[in-house]
Amino acid sequence: MTPTRTPTMTPITTPINDNPERSTRREHRFLLTSLVLGCLSASALAQSEAPKPASDSAQPVTTASPESPATPDGQAKVEDAMADPTDKLEVKINLGLWATSVSGTVAVRDRSASMSSSFIDIVQESDSVFGFTGLLEIGKGPISGYLNGVYMRVGVNDAPSNVGPVDITNEMGIVDFGLRFQLGEWRLGDLPRTPSGPLSGELATGVWSLDLNVGGRYFGVSLDLDSTQGLGSKSDTEEWVDPIVGTRLNFDISREWSVVVGGDIGGFGAASKFTWQASVMASYHFYVGSCNWSFDFGYRALGDNRDNLGPAGGAEFDIILYGPAIGFTVQF
To answer: How far apart are CA 34 and CA 53, in angstroms?
Structure first.
């Protein structure tokens, strides 16, 4: 299976002051903790299933020197040695940060406000500076399952609303989940292919692949709109799940560098009117033992439009989160 690389990313928080939404924050922290514990469990499982090293008596596969072209039989042996194994479990774990800006509209019952802040504004006005992101992906052959989570708490002061300026606190937990299918893998021109590493985590130079993602997106949102003119605050907590479908293009430029471009759409009226995501990430790879490590950096944007306002209350959530993202990934 061709290694996948998406990082996906989330914020470093300082202690959050007590407020009526404390229980919701505990739920989001429990969600992030469960994701990390799942990563550790998957790592132990993959190491227990990893094949044992070959004995010292095993003969290495050699390639022909430039002065002595390989024979057809010899070339076949080299290509077999470079083929990626498909019969072992592969695990990818990513932890990262997302420097988010936000733009859009939020509403709680009869109070609506415009929420538009750059990352610098959020740094100055929020308890959180970044969004925390985490990815766990486990697969064998062309099929893998994934969990991709984000947690952040964004604050905007003196935001315009229909009742005058308000202070907005928006706490979010987002988890993408589903299955990923590799539709194909192709070589680009005559670029040489490098041998695979011990766990097929080493990049294959000049190879690109296309994946299909099918799954869902969970949103947990806690909104608080507090009037700065003495009209009190209004808050609401909403949770929903939307179906999503997307694609991902992976390109292994060299043994050290790769690029991943991905996107998805969803909602379709199931819970949200529409939800979408797009990202482009570059990765620098280095190898420690049988593990492929990478430093990832790029840009990510995510939007959602949900309107649950009604006679009994509810909330409206129509925002776009966007900004640069960084992270570290290990694949084994």
So the answer is: 32
pLDDT, mean over the chain: 76
Q: Please answer whether residues 302 and 276 qualify as being in contact, where contact means their C-beta atoms are separated by less than 8 angstroms.
A: yes
Distance CA 199, CA 90 (A): 8
Residues 323 and 154: their CA atoms lie apart, in Å, by: 14
- Residue 225 to residues 28, 109, 193, 235: CA-CA distances in angstroms? 20, 10, 56, 6
Query: Given the DSSP bridges, would you call strands 207-227 and 111-117 parallel, antiparallel or unpaired?
Result: unpaired
Query: How far is it, in rounded angstroms, from Cα 68 to Cα 248?
Result: 40
Q: What is the DSSP letter of 313?
A: B
* Residues 240 and 266: beta-carbon distance below 8 Å: no
Fill in the amino acid letter for 91.
V
Distance CA 115, CA 107 (A): 10
- Distance separating alpha carbons of residues 92 and 328, to the nearest angstrom: 11
User: Which is nearest to 111 in space by CA: 202, 207, 225?
Assistant: 225
Q: What is the pTM of this model?
A: 0.70
* Integer Cα distance of 26 and 4 in angstroms: 32
CA distance 196 to 179: 24
Higher model confidence: residue 324 or residue 8?
A: 324
